[in-house]
């Protein structure tokens, strides 16, 4: 059936685990108690999830979900409460399994949320980011745009585009990060050459701005690739997405060669970023975005598209200090 998730490996593991658990019971009465408690728990949890799904997914009025839960959930809650008497006599087995699996899934969800929160809060706009054109681009018009932020500070931006001047909205967004801390100050007054290559910076959270992996790249290298693609992944609630619809392209501000790309795949599609499919999506965007001068950007991209570099962020998790730093006597 369409839109139904089927993972063969999960089915095999479930079959093996079921056989092992059933074989581990010493008598049938304990097995019946475990099955009864598990069945009652499934019925009650299904009522809870259905009530939530009616309002959150189906967008039905909340009164429908509440009415359903009070009607059917009340009856199933009576059976579930009565089945707790079976916990000491074999019902503890599915209870322990459920607690362990729920804890693991909750821990993974919490860790993924922390990872996404880190990516979201560490998106940088890099104020004072100056880009110097190479000789091949020197013939293009370069416009120097001066941007003022709300505090009165000034930043200079070289916008290497034939006919584009950075909009006030872009400049405000680029300057706003100034108040986040001192870590961005080290980028002030740095002049970076454009490297004739393409780079794809993978990011876990979609949105505008530079991911923190790009900031680390700039600290290590005295240059910026000619074509920068900041790629985020969006898994849709559909089995498959056609290849020509997977890439959604937009510009990052007014700087030439900076692109935001969302890679959309279905839950049965394999993650495989193909340059041969990514570049045509960027070319199509350039033709629509700038019909008059888009062909110039396309030719520049083709000139450096022979080499592609993928930069994937990597995390080292550290636990917080429980007792705090020690103090000397």
TrEMBL record:
Membrane topology of this protein: Multi-pass membrane protein
Protein's UniProt keywords contain Membrane: yes
Keywords of the record: Ion transport, Membrane, Potassium, Potassium transport, Transmembrane, Transmembrane helix, Transport
An example molecular function term from Gene Ontology annotations: potassium ion transmembrane transporter activity
Subcellular location(s) of the protein: Membrane
Transmembrane regions: 5-25, 31-50, 62-80, 92-110
Positions of the K+ potassium transporter integral membrane domain: 2-125
Signal peptide segment: none
Protein name: Uncharacterized protein
Species of origin: Paramarasmius palmivorus
């Amino acid at each position: 059936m369409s839109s139904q998730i089927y993972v063969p490996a999960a089915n095999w593991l479930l079959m093996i685990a079921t056989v092992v658990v059933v074989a581990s019971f010493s008598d049938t009465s304990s097995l019946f108690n475990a099955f009864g408690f598990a069945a009652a728990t499934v019925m009650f949890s299904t009522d809870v999830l259905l009530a939530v799904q009616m309002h959150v997914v189906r967008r039905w009025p909340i009164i429908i979900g509440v009415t359903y839960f009070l009607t059917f959930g009340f009856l199933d809650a009576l059976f579930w409460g009565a089945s707790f008497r079976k916990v000491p006599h074999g019902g503890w087995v599915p209870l322990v399994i459920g607690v362990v699996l729920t804890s693991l899934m909750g821990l993974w969800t919490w860790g993924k949320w922390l990872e996404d929160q880190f990516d979201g809060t560490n998106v940088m706009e890099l104020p004072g980011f100056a880009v110097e054109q190479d000789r091949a681009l020197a013939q293009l018009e370069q416009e120097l745009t001066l941007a003022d932020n709300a505090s009165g500070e000034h930043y200079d931006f070289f916008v290497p585009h034939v006919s584009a001047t950075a909009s006030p909205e872009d400049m405000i967004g680029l300057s706003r990060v100034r108040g986040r801390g001192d870590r961005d100050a080290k980028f002030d007054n740095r002049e970076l050459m454009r490297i004739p290559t393409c780079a794809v910076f993978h990011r876990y959270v979609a949105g505008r701005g530079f991911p923190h992996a790009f900031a680390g790249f700039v600290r290590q290298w005295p240059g910026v690739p000619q074509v920068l693609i900041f790629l985020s992944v969006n898994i849709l609630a559909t089995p498959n997405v056609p290849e020509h619809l997977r890439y959604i392209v937009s510009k990052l501000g007014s700087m030439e060669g900076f692109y935001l790309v969302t890679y959309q795949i279905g839950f049965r599609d394999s993650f495989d970023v193909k340059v041969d499919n990514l570049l045509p999506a960027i070319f199509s965007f350039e033709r629509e975005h700038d019909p008059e001068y888009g062909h110039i950007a396309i030719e520049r991209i083709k000139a450096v598209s022979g080499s592609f570099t993928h930069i994937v962020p990597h995390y080292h998790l550290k636990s917080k200090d429980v007792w705090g730093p020690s103090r000397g006597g």
